[in-house]
Amino acid sequence: MKKFFVICSLVLLLVLFTSVTYASNFSWDMAEGTTITVLFNQHTYSEAVIKKISEFEDLTGIKVNHTVIPEENYFDKLSIYLNSRAGDPDVFMTGAYQIWDYAPAGYLQELDKFIDDTSLTAPDYNIDDFFEGILGALRWDLVPGHKTGTGLQWAVPMAFEQYTLAYNKRIFEEKGLEPPKTMEELLEVTKALDEFDGKGSYALALRGTRNWATIHPGYMTTYANYGAKDIVIEDDRLVSRVNSPEAVEMTEMWLDLIHGGGASNWSTYTWYQASADLGAGKAAMLFDADVVEYFQNPEGASKEAGNLAWVPAPMPEDRLDADRKSNLWVWSLAMNKYSRKQEAAWLFMQYFTNADYQLWAALNAKCVNPARESVFNNSEFQSVVSKADGYSEAFEATVDGTGIQFTPQPKFFELTTEWASTLQDLVAGNYDSTQEAMDELKVKMDKALSDVELE
Asked: pLDDT digit string (tens) for 380-421?
């Protein structure tokens, strides 16, 4: 028996020794002398990374060549690079929706083998520190119709936006109004604030261009909170549900908001115009990304800086007890499947998504929302965001329900752009009813989805 215990002890010591030795194999300079290329979208998040590239180079001995492309043509150029399969760029910025095209096409390197290898990933990287819904938005099993959150990890988060309601508390106080909690209250407040400061001023800023980006922020957040689905799997094929009773009810509410107190030229509005109007005091509210509203609030950032406040996205009155949802946009770093320098590429990706960097970026470079829970809960960060009235509270009330509310499928951009076009036609009065418009949209979507294979 004594001999048995001695043998067991030796085996245990060997296992522990082996584990420690294995973990200690990680070294930031393992790819010293390598040169990688990185493609950035022009954004606050990429500006922050660029400021720290020299520190990364000093630590790792890796040379980084980077290119920044404006957002309006970033993804077009990225697609050309990836389609060439030449291996450049090694690392690039992406959103979650693009993964539904890039991963099935074989452009993306799955990351689990890097994350799980303790010789390639720093022991303090802690993948579990990311908010679950944010990291999960970048995990997918490649099957159209299957939700994100399962399958392989295709990218790692830089920072993200969720969708809340920002309002000008100065205007609300002057008018004796309370921030709305329900969609019905939002409609009442919107009507009450129409032309609140004379012609040209209006109540609620919303996106409206004929573009997928009109559907994915406040509209899709509200759509999900009404319990509506965009696409489902039925009889082994993808079928649109945009004409369901919940979808029609929600869309009618959205039309009422636009007609009741939206911008007169709503159909031209991107998030830039919408956020600028909030900051200038031209709009009293903005239902969009919490971060774009946040950028208008620091001292000197806009005319109404310091007057902005946040509440969670209003819920339908009859669904106040339902779990609150928000759609999601998450800027992320991904690796080119054809990169010949994947080890160095992964070092870059983990350096610029680790907790230390993300805390610095959140405190010093306006990189909100942080994708890591430890960064959001950091006392210094909380001190900074406490200056934004209600921002932290709205974040916490929303983040657990934040995720991709769309159904992954390869024709996302085509179909959401068609959806935005239908919304424009409805606002313009080109249909006799919302039901008629959504029925027609369903037919178009079903036709486009008819050749999508689920296997």
From this structure: 999 999 999 999 999 999 999 999 999 999 999 999 999 999
- 73: Cβ–Cβ under 8 A, 6 or more apart, which residues? none
In whole angstroms, give the CA distance from residue 79 to residue 327. 24
- Domains of the chain and any CATH numbers: 35-160+329-393 (3.40.190.10), 163-326+411-449 (3.40.190.10)
Q: What's the CA gap between 203 and 167, in Å, rounded?
A: 9
* Beta pairing, strands 283-289 & 202-205: parallel
What does the pLDDT look like over 44-92, one tens digit per residue? 999 999 999 999 999 999 999 999 999 999 999 999 999 999 999 999 9
Quote the radius of gyration of the chain (alpha carbons, Å). Answer: 24
Tell the residue number behind the tokens 């294979």, with chain if given.
453
Distance CA 124, CA 282 (A): 46
Residue 22's pLDDT is 40
